[in-house]
Amino acid sequence: MHGYVVTDTETSETAPRGIPGIAVSNGTDVVETDDQGRFELPDTGRFVTLTRPTGFTADPWWVRATAGEIRFTLTPQEQPLPYSFAHLTDTHMTVPADHPAFDPALLEAFGLYREGSLPQQIVDFLAELPRREPQVRSVMITGDLVDHGRPAEYELYTEALATSPLPVHVIPGNHDHMTDEHGMFVSRNNYLTNAGTVENYERFVGPRWYSFDVAGLHVVAMDWHSHELGIDHDEQNAWLRNDLARRTPGSPWILLFHDQPNASLLDHVPWQPIAAFSGHWHTSRVVEVDGALHVNSPTTFFASLDYSPPAFRVITWDGETIGLRTETVLVRESPVELDDVSTATFSSAPARRSADAVLWRSPLVGASHRQSVLVDGDLVVAGSQIEDRAAGTVEAFDLASGERVWRADTRSAVKTTPVVSGGLVIAAEVSGDVTAYDRATGEFAWRVDSSDPLRRFAWGGPATANGLVYLGDQSDLRAIDAARGAVVWRRDDLSPHHNLVNHSTPLIVGDLLVMGFWPTPQHPVGLDARTGESVWAGAPVPDEVSFEAMKQLLIMGTAVHDPQRDLVLMPAFGHSAAVERATGRVVWATAHRGGFSPSAPVVTAAGYVATSAGVGLQVLEPETGEILREIAVEGDAPFPMSSYTKTPHPVVSAPLSADGTLLLSGLDGVIRRLDPASGAEVGRAQLHAPIASTLTEAGELFVGVGTDGGVFAVSRSVAS
Known about the structure:
The protein is mostly beta strands. A hairpin with a 4-residue loop joins strand 52 and strand 53. Helix 2 runs parallel beside helix 3 (about 150-160). The radius of gyration is 26 Å and the shape is globular.
């Protein structure tokens, strides 16, 4: 294959000028144009792609492989420093219900995704972006562009992108390769994912890996899913080596990849990128590994699996470093009762007002998420997240006054509640690192490094008992000596690696550790807390079983123990389940509204109380699981946080049972006092920040934290 790269300066008197030194590729080989702008490539591959150099663009920048002469024409493009682009991911576009290709049976069969984005949402967002972010010069979308990989979805998606006033660069994700097939299997890297074919993406979109330059920064875009499946990982790795071989060794480059890259790619590069941008997990996570910033961004048009609200990131390259700014996407105007929510759960926001019910309020350095505070004696301890860099904090406050006692900086966000053991405060970071600090001073004590910071996504909190700290997920569960920071045992065989976020904190009852996982071949599990050996496990899921039957034990969050009946209660997908503590036998599983609801059930005299995120509360009869009553909650929340939803709703956290009532905090900033016996609201208090976490009891106070990072205390009589 052969051709030319020329400028667009041709006039009636002059011929186009060939440009030397421009990289062109057939998907494996990479060559540079000669002094006349000519290139020749081996006759292999499905596409020929042009690496657009700094200060230029080209349309087209790729063509399908051909024996004829190829001509790429470079057009000057202004790319001043600093250069900013918007990072979107997992748009999951579906066809509208009135479209001829709409298939409700397909959505029902898939069972998970019910509120995908529609073409008009994408069109409107892209049209609004220049006004909202005038410094942004392009958009980069890292996969799962469409939801089922169907031709009709691709047709509408390409039409939507064609309306964008800004250049848009895209790569595929696993959903883009589904082609209506949603079956799961374990890949070559022990990764639970779906099968896929690449034909529809290549037919409607084009090349699945390519590179270009902007403002002196080299951008590499690759296809994670086909790489993970082993369809073309050797081909992609060879192309990347050849692409980088044309660069100055050590020069800056960034990677666009649908999933967080791991060793199967990064071990094959001559030097690491300065940053990698991904999605797939439907989470917000920023870590630094070997000097590279790894940015996993939340979904843009619906709430994420980690309960991040819809968001996008503005990425800025200043010629030397990468900067981040995360923005919440609001689907309605924020209620006047709330302060600034534009960066809720991503970075702290200063409070503009003090609510009458608040006795004291102290800001964390970062924002807060779903995690509650820890109250230990006279100390309040909270973790924070700083999602615009790889950072977080653990901070301690005086319970009586709210004054900060100490602060410890962490290498990544702390999104779960710390624990105290033997005079140490112990926290889990989203990288999988575990750190300990002196309770009185905050002085660093020890660190247990993550087993794999590239693939560990730690949203399950730690638990402590008998001098050990337990935490992890279904593919990396650890017991750590709390005094020394030494790993006592580890289980990495409970499930293949996958991207579905685990919100479970281990439940310790005597010598038994109980956890449930979502999804895993066997669930839940009971382990010997001293050794990690299996005591009992749920029956394996049969090969032929409906999703409806399976999801009753897809455990979403932390279990609780009812000592009176010796039952373990577990929040499952659209269900609550009770199992015998001693054997793991399922006593009952009750379906109710609210699919993704990871909040732990609450044991009360009126019955078990389950949280239905985006709905309200369910009160269940303890012996049978029968729904005694549903407590529906309505309120003016500014954004959704319940996974896969686009409709804002105040309920995401579990209530606190206190004084015979339930105290339910909400994303509308309201603390509601509810009667569990009747379901009636008996009082409320309005605060000025969304609250996504359960309040913590502290004697005559209740202590909480808002999504803005404000730790606050209210009196025990609040909302009476």
